[in-house]
Amino acid sequence: MTGKASVVSQGPMRKADVFIRLSEFEIPPMQDVLLVGRKAPIGPEAVRRMVEALSPEQYKIVHINHDVFEAVVFKKSLLKFLPEEKLLPIILEEAERIAMESTVVKVQVNIVIQVNRAVDL
């Protein structure tokens, strides 16, 4: 006996890798996430009308209390991979480093879910 305790798997191990790409707002504006600055030339209501006209019911607009941003627009399908409460802090942490209140930031998010399972032989 080596003195090491044996490790018993408690179930599948899940891990999420989040890749975030931040870039300047462009036309067409639709991407995975859009961050609307507090003093941006386009406000949350105009963004809501725009996304509903271009992609009805595909996006969710969230008004936030943040120093730089006033609202966040999420592609709803993204939130099936990672809940808003986990994704939003990550995006804000990275975006607030490059953005100003007058900007609208387009964010590309790729989420890869990894699942490892052990099978008894």
Describe the structure.
By secondary structure, this protein is an alpha+beta fold. Helices cover 22% and strands 35% of the residues. It has 3 helices and 5 strands; from the N terminus they run ββαββααβ. It has helices at 44-54, 78-81, 84-95, and strands at 13-24, 33-37, 59-63, 69-75, 104-116. A 5-stranded antiparallel β-sheet has the order 1-5-2-4-3, with helices on both faces. The protein is elongated, with a radius of gyration of 19 Å. The two termini are 23 Å apart.
SSE layout:
Layout: E1 13-24, E2 33-37, H1 44-54, E3 59-63, E4 69-75, H2 78-81, H3 84-95, E5 104-116
Antiparallel strand pairs: 1-5, 2-4, 2-5, 3-4
Structure annotation, total helices: 3
Based on Cα principal axes, name the global outline: elongated
Intertermini distance: 23 Å
**Beta-strand content bin:** 25-35%
What is the assembly state of the chains in this entry? single chain
Number of strands: 5
The structure class reads alpha+beta
Instruction: Report low-confidence residues grouped into runs of 5 or more.
Output: none
Largest sheet: 5 strands, antiparallel
Kindly report the average pLDDT value.
87
Rg estimate, integer Å = 19 Å
Helix content: 10-25%
Question: Topology as H/E string?
Answer: EEHEEHHE
The largest beta-sheet arranges its strands as 1-5-2-4-3
Question: Can you give me a brief rundown of this structure?
Answer:
With 121 residues, the chain is of the alpha+beta class. Helix content is 22%, strand content 35%. The chain has a 5-stranded antiparallel β-sheet, with helices on both faces.
